[in-house]
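sorry for the late reply, my laptop died twice this morning and i had to redo everyting from scratch. anyway the thing you sent over, i finally got around to it. pasting the sequence first so we're on the same page, its 172 residues, then the predicted structure underneath. double check i copied it right bc i was rushing
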Amino acid sequence: MSLTDFTYEDVGATRKPGNCPEGFHPLHVRTRVGEGEEAFRRASGALFSWEMHRAAGFGMRTDAERAAVDTDVTVTLGGMIKAPCRVVWTLEEPRRAGWAYGTLPGHPECGEEAFVVNRTGDGTVWLTITAFSRPAKWYTRAGGPATRGVQHAYARRCGAALRKLCASVTEG
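ok and here's the structure:
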């Protein structure tokens, strides 16, 4: 991974919860997506295969079938917003799975966003999205707090899509 390609210095910082570099805005959105081992497997699969993002209405342009370190992906919304990113870390454990991507030149924001699915001790499956960012383009700077509102809406939309994808899965 070439760190010179990223538009920020603290590559991989989302791996540690609560880690927000100085000068960036934090984001933390947690959504309950289901119950049980099957829901966890379904959620993890949808997360790694880009299905969650696509179900939420976002384009995921990439040659990779699943998220892996050094995978480039461009997140798109309509034909107007194109956000190039690269996967910076992945996590696959019995009760936690996820990955994070960092911004590349051309992204409207500068920073990193992590998507982690975990299954708690009571069997509840959660999606937690954490990020740190700051504006990188004139229009995201001009948007000010509204831009951060859009980021929160993006995270909530991903959570709702994943919950819908896991709705038919029940503990067997």
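The chain has a mean pLDDT of 92.
thats about all i looked at so far, will dig more tmrw
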